[in-house]
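Quick one: structure tokens for this chain, please?
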Amino acid sequence: MEALKLIALDGQDLNVISAHVQDAVLKVGDLEFLPTAKRFVVAMNRFAWEKKSGFLRKHNERRQSVLHFDRVLGAKTSGIARNKPEEVLSLLAISYLPITAPAGIIELVFSGGGAIMLDVECVEARLADLGGAWQASSRPWHRI
């Protein structure tokens, strides 16, 4: 399977990226804001939702990926212990709230109540798989 590469330039595009990174896991230390470059980087192990699995063939895999946001003016965290770089986070969703379009807030929501709010000039995000895949021990499951 080929590596996934996606770009988001508006809220709808960001919804597609959000679907692909749902249930990605990462460490707090893998979050990096580069203010002079106006970039926020998230290195993660994402669950490959696009990988097909069948009734008899259960195939769950994760891929090492990087998601970065450009044109970021500021970043704030809530419920994330920045002093615990080894703590594992599970990404649930990413959303965009336009304030003065195209400027707005991009929010990354994590299980357990953690969140990151990015103040952006506009939506400009890229998701790319970096290497090979490996088998995941289980498939994420959500209650409705």
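Residues 11-21 form the longest helix (11 residues).
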